[in-house]
Amino acid sequence: MRTRVCITIDTEFSIGGAFGNAGREPVAEPLVWCNARGRSEGLGFMLDTFRQYGVQATFFVETVQRLYFRHDPMRPIAQKIRDEGHEVQLHTHPCWTLFEHEDWRERARQARRPDDFFGRSEADSVRLLEQGIATFRDWGVDKPKAFRSGNLQHDANLYKALKAVGIPYSSNIAAGVFQSGDPQYKLYSGQHLLEGVVECPVLTFADWRFAGKTHLKALTIAGTSFRETRILLEKARAAGIPMVVILTHPFEYVRSRDVSFTHLRRQYVTQRRLVKLCQYLQHNSEHFDACGFAHALDANAKTSARNELLDVPLWHSVPRMAEQVIYDKYSGWALGRAAS
Fold first, then answer.
1. pLDDT of 49-61, one tens digit each?
2. Which of 125, 166, 175, 188 has the fewest CB atoms within 10 Å, i.e. the most exposed one?
3. Could you tell me which residue, 313 or 282, shows the higher pLDDT?
4. What structural domains and CATH numbers belong to the chain?
């Protein structure tokens, strides 16, 4: 049986610093398309790459931003993704609900952790999920079968809410990003039943161990070298892990000089990693199935208590860390030079 590899893309707009600075405004399309020198280096680059290598991806699309962006700029984006043959699933950032109120700036100053799902009531989570389902209906997109929470936050109430609204699958957990403190949610890999919902966490792995400490890291395109990713895919296959979930965002394929995403250059390292991964999946299709998240679970939603923590050798992690620091400094210099 082939190991299913699900490249998942959180597709969202940005508050753009508006909660803390009256001179700033939320940012919509530039955060997704990421246009630089007349070319889309974000979503456009990703769609071109997936098309070239025959990869079906899953885009978790945020909907609550409609409370601010009344002209609905995410609609054509979601429809474009669907028309390209990819999955459109639901993503929610609760902080956008502040725009339901005319005094949102004052509420933002007073709110404590307005973007949290952790600690949110089941009823309020249901309300947010129903808003997303209604938005998909307005967009002419199929009802979501899978959900990812903003900031990868989760608790029992969120899973109960997912079950209540009829969303059977989720990917809300990445132990290397957020941990609730509840051991039943400390999941690294596999497929697990939580409150009647099948949860497939973003793969979390150990990239170094020292003096009895283990550093956990989520498997992302921006934060993991292709060499590390290949090792993890091969180890997952050897361990019988049926499904590997990888996380990325469109804006990670560019470097921006400002929060409004108006001065950009492509992020060569991240783009190269995605291309190499898609090439690898295509060339090893007898072992790996690069497919959509819900598609994979529709084919096999069998859950298990197995929760493997994979690792990569430190001598592979250190070069990645060095590469990212060096390229980040170079990109910052290049952007500054272009501006001057």
1. 999 999 999 999 9
2. 166
3. 282
4. 3-204+218-308 (3.20.20.370)
